[in-house]
């Protein structure tokens, strides 16, 4: 124990100071480097003193890899780090943004837009706790969440990663940070990172800042905003995250009035670190250095220089780490990046590693593996689904509500592309980066939930795309039609039209012309709802991207629980009206905060 940094009883700042004093320049710049698991191996981590490894979207040890498989891989990388001269552990980062969504069998929660509809900060905190446990079970102590974007335009491909268009709703939902990291004790110093122990993870408030307000909703685009708008609307949720001891902040690909966020020294250093007192680490987004120039990767050396000098502490390289290390070393040796900047970065990285307990407990706690996807965790997700559903219409006559449905119905029709598709229910960032169709993990579709609820008492006819023949007998009590978007993420989800795909409108209209129908829309954002459909349908539910627990939908449809979700965004009539703002003078289809309620049936 002659090294203070190895003494678990020494103060964190003493340990940081001691370790920093022992490090060579090469070890320091290694710590500033985060590499992808596909190029990582124990010897490279050891020899280069690499600070962190990550999984890019959907990057996993192999298809359908379970938590134990992940833990084996991550612990293998960790062994390499501990074999280095100073034995500095890595942290492994993963996009656990709605549950530990890369891992087979994990509990998948509704995407953030659905959680915004719940307005329930305590529920979101509990979701953070479950996500932390399931993420730790796979060996990762670092989740790239929450996204605290205030999303102003549903044409944006990441709209569903935002809780709301309204700053106050987003601020409320930053409770996820305390769920992921644990609640800091009374008197915890403001801005200082915090992790409560081995059952919690480091969080990452992202994407700093203004990512939700780019022009026309173009991903990675330009946010045109005044200083006051940027601070009062978009920066405000970061202050709440910092107050909860958030360990990391991730910079945004986007620009503010034409200036790229990743090299924005005023916002990254003067505002975030100096004015707001953030003491954690500031990380780039994936390949952000390449994306700093147009065309991409036009001047890598200059990109390294401008981001590090602007205040970036760790770079998500993720592949070309030899090149990054070479350029960074040369820039420091030439004096173009001052040594004080390197020391500030490494101090922050080490602080977070000590706070997270990685020096004492670098390996996976395998006792957590049995909790992954357990009943108690799925119950939290099911509750989240119930509370997230927004009822937009209930009965053609307000005095005669159509919902709740009758469990004693003799025969019902279940239709639509989304009634029996777990991948569609989960959306992007599930199993893979963009998401998939079908049985992508363990979970319950709407059809599964209906069969479980109604049993043999009700004949359920399932036709994804019904025809006239389907209605030949004409004896359905009612129909449930689930339509919506296919999965997408990031730029691939940018959509200037927002029409319901897969002929969803046509399917729902065809059915509702023939039998009383409730339409369920599975989507990451408001879509164009054609007036004839809304007029004809008996009930219309916005279900967002609910995740693996489809029974949360049937819980509410049949009256075991009431509808209580409220729109976290304004629902436009036509895309010509976009972007609509919550405080604007518009005439939307449904206003921000709209949501009908229902009575619960006596059980």
Automatic annotation (TrEMBL):
**All copies of domain Glycoside hydrolase family 3 C-terminal, residue ranges:** 389-597
Q: Does the keyword Hydrolase apply?
A: yes
Q: Which GO terms describe its biological process?
A: glucan catabolic process
Sorted keywords for this record are: Glycosidase, Hydrolase
**What terms describe the molecular function in GO for this protein?**
beta-glucosidase activity
Q: Which Gene3D superfamilies match?
A: Glycoside hydrolase family 3 C-terminal domain (3.40.50.1700), Glycoside hydrolase, family 3, N-terminal domain (3.20.20.300)
Q: Which residues form a coiled coil?
A: none
Q: Which is a Pfam family this sequence falls into? A: Glyco_hydro_3_C
Every copy of the Glycoside hydrolase family 3 N-terminal domain together lies at 24-352
* KW Membrane (keyword) present: no
- Source domain of life is Eukaryota
Family, according to the entry, reads as follows: Belongs to the glycosyl hydrolase 3 family.
Name of the protein in its database record: Beta-glucosidase
Annotated organism of origin: Anisodus tanguticus
């Amino acid at each position: 124990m002659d090294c203070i940094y190895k003494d678990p009883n020494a103060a964190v700042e003493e340990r940081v100071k001691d370790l920093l004093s022992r490090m060579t320049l090469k070890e320091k710049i290694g710590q500033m480097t985060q590499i992808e698991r596909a190029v990582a191996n124990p010897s490279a981590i050891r020899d280069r003193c690499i600070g962190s490894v990550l999984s890019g979207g959907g990057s996993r040890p192999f298809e359908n890899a379970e938590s134990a498989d992940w833990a084996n891989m991550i612990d293998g990388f960790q062994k390499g780090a501990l074999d280095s001269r100073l034995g500095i552990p890595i942290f492994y980062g993963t996009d656990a943004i709605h549950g530990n969504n890369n891992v087979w069998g994990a509990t998948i929660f509704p995407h953030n837009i659905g959680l915004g509809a719940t307005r329930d900060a305590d529920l979101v905190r509990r979701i953070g706790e479950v996500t932390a446990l399931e993420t730790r079970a796979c060996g990762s102590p670092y989740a790239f969440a929450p996204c605290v974007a205030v999303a102003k335009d549903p044409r944006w491909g990441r709209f569903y990663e935002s809780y709301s268009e309204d700053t106050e709703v987003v601020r409320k939902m930053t409770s996820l940070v305390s769920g992921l990291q644990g609640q800091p004790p009374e008197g915890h110093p403001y801005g200082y990172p915090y992790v409560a122990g081995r059952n919690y993870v480091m969080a990452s408030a992202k994407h700093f800042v203004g990512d939700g307000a780019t022009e026309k909703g173009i991903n990675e685009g330009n946010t045109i905003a005044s200083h006051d708008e940027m601070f009062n609307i978009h920066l405000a949720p970061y202050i709440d995250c910092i107050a909860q001891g958030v360990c990391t902040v991730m910079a945004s690909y986007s620009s503010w009035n034409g200036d790229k966020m990743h090299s924005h020294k005023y916002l990254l250093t003067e505002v975030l670190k100096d004015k707001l007192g953030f003491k954690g680490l500031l990380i780039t987004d994936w390949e952000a250095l390449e994306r700093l120039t147009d065309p991409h990767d036009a001047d890598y050396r200059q990109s390294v220089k401008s981001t590090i000098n602007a205040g970036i502490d760790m770079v998500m390289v993720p592949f070309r780490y030899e090149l990054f290390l070479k350029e960074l070393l040369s820039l420091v040796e030439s004096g173009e990046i001052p040594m004080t900047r390197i020391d500030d970065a490494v101090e922050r990285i080490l602080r977070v590693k000590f706070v997270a307990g990685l020096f004492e407990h670098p390996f996976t706690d395998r006792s957590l593996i049995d909790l992954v996807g357990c009943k108690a965790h799925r119950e939290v997700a099911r509750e989240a689904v119930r509370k997230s559903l927004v009822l937009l219409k209930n009965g053609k006559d307000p005095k005669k509500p159509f919902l709740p449905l009758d469990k004693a119905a003799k025969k019902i029709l279940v239709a639509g592309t989304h009634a029996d598709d777990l991948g569609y229910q989960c959306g992007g960032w599930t199993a893979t980066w963009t998401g998939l169709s079908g049985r992508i993990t363990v979970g319950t579709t709407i059809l599964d939930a209906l069969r479980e609820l109604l049993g043999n008492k009700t004949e359920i006819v399932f036709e994804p795309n019904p025809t006239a023949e389907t209605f030949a007998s004409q004896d359905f009590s009612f129909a449930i039609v689930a339509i919506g978007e296919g999965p997408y993420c990031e730029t691939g989800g940018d959509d200037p039209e927002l029409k319901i795909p897969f002929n969803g409108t046509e399917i729902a209209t065809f059915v509702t012309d023939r039998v009383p129908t409730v339409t369920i829309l599975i989507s990451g954002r408001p879509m164009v709802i054609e007036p004839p459909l809304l007029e004809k349908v008996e009930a219309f539910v916005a279900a967002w991207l609910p995740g693996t627990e489809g029974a949360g939908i049937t819980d509410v449809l049949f009256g075991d629980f009431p509808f209580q979700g409220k729109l976290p965004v304004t629902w436009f009539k036509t895309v010509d009206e976009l972007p609509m703002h919550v405080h604007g003078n518009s005439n939307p289809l449904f206003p921000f905060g709209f949501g009908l309620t229902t009575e619960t049936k006596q059980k």
